[in-house]
Amino acid sequence: MSRATASSPVSERSNRAEKPLPLALRELRHKSGLSLTEAADFVGMHKARLSEIERGVRGPSAAELQLLAWYYGPLEVAFVVREVRA
């Protein structure tokens, strides 16, 4: 099986999405037009905890990531997580 070339869609997609998970989650929150407090309150998380996740101080648990995915939109977060793991 051949590898993707620099001009292939697969390569372009992975280059476009090379962001750390914390930054990507912060961008999704901003895209949703939410403050840190609003997002944290909605998912039942303390705003300090969400801030730690968005700054990369601590990673989100699977449950926290699931809550954020539900709130920000599962397709948005699933794309971010898939690209970060790649």
How would you explain this protein's 3D organization?
- It is a single chain.
- The protein has a single domain (19-85), classed as lambda repressor-like DNA-binding domains (434 Repressor (Amino-terminal Domain)), CATH 1.10.260.40.
- It has helices spanning 9-16, 21-31, 36-43, 47-55, 62-72, 74-85.
- The protein is mainly α and 86 residues long.
- It is 69% helix and 0% strand.
- The chain starts with 8 loop residues before the first helix and ends with a helix.
- The chain contains 6 helices and no strands.
Q: What distinguishing features does this structure have?
A:
single chain, 86 residues, mainly alpha, 434 Repressor (Amino-terminal Domain), globular
Secondary structure layout plus pairing:
Blueprint: H1 9-16, H2 21-31, H3 36-43, H4 47-55, H5 62-72, H6 74-85
Beta percentage is under 5%
Binned, the helix content reads 55-70%
Largest sheet, strands/sense/barrel:
none
CATH superfamily: lambda repressor-like DNA-binding domains
Total of helices: 6
Number of domains: 1
Short description:
The protein is mainly α and 86 residues long. The protein is 69% helix and 0% strand. The protein has helices at 9-16, 21-31, 36-43, 47-55, 62-72, 74-85.
